[in-house]
Amino acid sequence: EVTTKTCAYTNHTIMAEALEKWPIELFSRLLPRIYQIIEEINRRFVEEIQKKYPGNQEKIRKMAIIYDGQVKMAHLAICAGYSVNGVAALHTEILKNQELKDFYEMMPEKFNNKTNGITQRRFLLHGNQLLADWVTDHIGPEWITDLSQISKLKVYVDDEKAQQEFMNIKYQNKVRLAKYILEHNGVEVNPRSIFDVQVKRLHEYKRQLLNILHVIYLYDQIKKHPEMDFYPRTFIFGAKASAGYARAKKIIKLINSVADVVNNDASIEGKLKVVFIENYRVSNAEMIFAAAVSEQISTASKEASGTGNMKFMLNGAPTLGTMDGANVEIVDEVGKENAFIFGLSADEVINYENNGGYDPRVIYNTDDEIRQVLTELVNGTFSSDTELFRDLYNSLLNQNGGERADQYFILADFRSYAAAQKKVEEAYKDEKGWARMAMLNTACAGKFT
């Protein structure tokens, strides 16, 4: 009784591998007394389930804390606390309607949402001093302890002088990042190019693979049509992969291999550069957030919230992204016209997952340009070892054990993503429009503290 009035459970992800389930054998051997207590908690909880749903074995199978030889930690957390929350509005709804549906039906009063937030003191005041000083000059210092005050910047978004100052700060931050890249990567990037950035953990659902496949697509386009109108782009990646996550490491390898080819091809005249920033961490992230377009391209329904998206927004970076996690709320705050949204919706993804109906090979067989990009993974374009990226190629086209082909809908969203990228390029050429959009992103970030 004391515990259930004291403890609250925040769920941070619906990715199965992060929802801990421990084998009874291991648990009871290492923690014999705790295991006894959990058995008793489970016995009482199963009694409650039976009282509420007499004779319903299915409910017990889905909700018991101990079942099938495993201790299910998320079930224990729900049962043992007074509150269960997701970390963005969309995430909480998915928990209620999908992952934790049975628990929500049994105890709806426990469920609520708490959208994640970030600290403006680290990610603007400390990380982007030029912009922080500018904000304070215009609206005073209250935003430092009360981020909602930053909305006072809205009166300046159409002011030409303010726009110029804002964009000049952005340019200086791009110069700072370019210097860092030259020092650490030995690659010279053009601070007047579009800095398109994806920095976050490396995971398939975050779709760094979609991003680099699109870079290959742009590279093919420039090679095929050297005369075409193309605004210079710098694609910046930063990520760490989990120690045992082989495919994530392979994606890092691919990004670096593409970078080697693209950055050393004199024929494209520096229109395209690719940079993988080593040892991504908060201290270099500060430099990155201050200078960018923000890629938030997770498969809809997979990103619980994301907070990098908020750090970019606070620093005046428009979002290129799917309607996933807190992106939904970012777009609510800033308006759809001030973001670049693409791709399947969470409902569409969940529908495909539950009912089938998606076959990436149809796209592969009917879209020459996408087929060309995938072929280049295995034909020696980016590595003399044609087998090096075979697993990535296969993951997109072939069913693999219990894994669906292209389970993160990369090919499904590719065309929509490429079109959104084209819109970014068009918008960037309109300097005043871009300045207004960037300023609005900063001015609307107050909710995400």
Structural write-up:
It is a single chain. The protein is about 50% helix and about 10% strand. The chain is built from 21 helices and 12 strands. α11 crosses α18 and α17 (about 360-365) packs across α18. The longest helix is centred in the middle third of the chain and has 26 residues, at about 160-185. It starts with a helix and ends in a 6-residue tail after the last helix. The mean pLDDT is about 95.
Any key phrases for this structure?
single chain; 449 residues; alpha/beta; six-stranded parallel beta sheet; three-stranded parallel beta sheet; 21 helices; 12 strands; globular
Q: Determine the fraction of residues in helical runs and give it as a percent range.
A: 40-55%
Main beta sheet strand tally, sense and closure: 6 strands, parallel
Shape: globular
Distance from first to last alpha carbon = 33 Å
Calculate Rg over CA atoms.
24 Å
Task: Give the SSE layout.
Layout: H1 2-6, E1 8-10, E2 21-23, H2 24-30, H3 32-52, H4 57-63, E3 66-67, E4 70-72, H5 73-79, E5 83-86, H6 89-99, H7 101-106, E6 111-113, H8 120-126, H9 129-139, H10 160-185, E7 194-199, H11 208-224, E8 233-238, H12 246-263, E9 272-277, H13 282-289, E10 293-296, H14 308-314, E11 319-321, H15 327-334, E12 340-341, H16 346-355, H17 360-366, H18 368-378, H19 390-397, H20 410-429, H21 431-443
Parallel strand pairs: 1-5, 5-6, 7-8, 7-10, 8-9, 10-11, 11-12
Antiparallel strand pairs: 2-4, 3-4
Structure, briefly:
The protein is an alpha/beta fold and about 450 residues long.
